[in-house]
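Review session, final week

We close the course with one last complete record, chosen because it touches almost every idea we covered. It is Site-specific recombinase XerD, a protein from Parafrankia irregularis with 416 residues. Go through it on your own first, then we will talk.
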Amino acid sequence: MPRKRKEGTRAPNGASSIYFGTDGSWHGRVTVGVRDDGKPDRRHVRGKSEVEVTRKVRKLEQDRDAGTVRKPGRPWTVERWLTHWVENIAAPSVSENTIAGYRVAVRVHLIPGLGAHRLDRLEPEHVEKLMQKMLRAGSAPATAHQAYRTLKTALNEAVRRKHITENPTLIAKPPKLVEEEVEPYSVEEVQRLLIAAARQRNSARWALALALGLRQSEVLGLKWADVDLDQGVLRIRRGRLRPKYAHGCQVPCGRKAGYCRDRITVHPDTRDTKSRAGRRPIGLPDELVAILRRHRDVQAAERALAASLWHEAGWVFTDETGRPLNPNTDYHRWKALVRAAGVRDARLHDARHTAATALLLLGVPDRIVMGIMGWSSDMRRRYQHVTDPMLRDAADKVGRLLWEVPTAAERPAGGE
């Protein structure tokens, strides 16, 4: 006959208890900590047999001793947690570009794919199925991997705060990320791009990208105070951010915030470069110094023409009224430049690869190349498949020139 808890008796404070209830089920109670209001956090389990409840009580005690008991309260759903995490935990502590990527991953992929699950019941298989679904729907492997990394970061924080006991993404197999091969432009293609750029406004912007490998944000974030044309040096100190807007209209205009006539910019134009690798001086070839001097003279003429409409903030590259260039507009101008030059279509970032490859082919030491490019770790291996064959070809040519014995037909007349 099942034993019942004796009336008038109770387990010592903090001790677990197991008893048969009047409802015909076995019950267990385990104190696992203290609630936010200071009262004991006593958890309840039930089962059909004493053995079943004993097993559940022991498991709760083990989790309590290991510090892995889920916090009390209404269980989080994946949607509620991701929304809370991205806006209240991640947003105040990461850069604007990083939080923009997090928001896209959360809003576009993770919440539609996993949001209805209870956070503490999310399984590795759920994550893997979502990744495969994204790939089948046409998402790039890098996009799926970005969603996976975002979820992993969010769930690590949930574990740290004891909303869940383990992170299922640590068990799930992430999508395979194939590293994109470097495809730099040839010297002839670069020359054609520079010729086409010379016919456009802000042509110096493309000369800097192709010759020095500056990132888009670094070029657009340059101010004249960062450029010393007399010494032939520029310093990278900040990066241009993608604009983000909010409505400024009193009556809803019905448009997206970016197209509102009274729109308000909600974050700064730039962010200071934080890493040591990113903050760096770069020497300017004489040809670039001359290009920048001409660009400065043209800008002075534009400033005079715009008169009171000019917004003076010291930007090297501006629109017709002195405002910093929009990264999205800059991207479309790059695509137009590629078409005008008649070269193969490529990413704006490929201009950076071109500069890095040229430096390596010229034999510039890796450490110096890393400093010029702003690499925080050795990226040399990504260019190995491009530069090594070219270097081998050059070595073969030198070898044939110096040591290959000419045939009788190739010997000059009168030679021995």
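Two points worth writing down before the exam:
The radius of gyration is 32 Å.
The first strand starts at residue 17 and ends at 20.
Good luck, everyone.
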